[in-house]
Amino acid sequence: MIRFYKTPWITRALYSSLTWRIPSKDSIFLTFDDGPHPEATSWVLDQLDQVNAKATFFCLGRNLEAHSDLAENILVKGHKLGNHSFNHLKGWKTDDVDYLNDLALCDQQLKTLDSQTSLFRPPYGRISRSQLKKLSDKQVVMWSHLSWDFDPDLNVEKSLKKLKQAKPGSILVFHDSAKAFKNLKQILPEILAHFHAKGLKFEAIKS
Q: What is the pLDDT averaged over residues 66-90?
């Protein structure tokens, strides 16, 4: 299995309208997908607090519905919420109408939290061109570096080595989920310490 820790330039070129990096001279952009999750998200928030880091949480609508208290805590701590769909559907295998309806369900959950946002990350990073054309009101946020923390067979040291190559403006992807939590607990503290020591900030993505 080939793992791309850094998004290939050809992918970025083919989908140049999507957000792969954020212009910045001194900030890294941490993102967390698939939450909120009672254990993982609470732990992530504690880790971020230790270095005054801000991040963007691309949440599933079904998890926002189940754990609205956690979502509210994310916002209270100054982080941002983004739409990651309601049911984590694969864009390439889902009818456009069903896909967009699922995304709208997540928007409804965000609205109940007074957190309407244009930020959207497609589950699995997979979305069709026809779906993109119908999302002109969304800022579709991808990534420059993927941690692969959800992979049970991950070589954590290799992941850390690749992530540490990130530069100001890079968007890093982690997952605050049960599946990723074991690897996340090893990776995130070291990444926070590494870039904090370099004098870089961690900012949330502005919508």
A: 97
pLDDT at 2: 61
Q: pLDDT tens digits, residue range 37-48?
A: 999 999 999 999
Average pLDDT of span 109-114: 95
Query: In sequence order, what DSSP letters do the residues of the chain get, joined into one string?
Result: ----SB--HHHHHHTTTSBSB---SSEEEEEEES---HHHHHHHHHHHHHTT--EEEEE-HHHHHHTHHHHHHHHHTT-EEEE--SS---GGGS-HHHHHHHHHHHHHHHHHTT---SEE--GGG---HHHHHT-TTSEEB--SEE--TT-TT--HHHHHHHHTT--TTBEEEEE-STTTHHHHHHHHHHHHHHHHHTT-EE-PPP-
Q: How confident is the prediction for the chain on average, in pLDDT?
A: 96
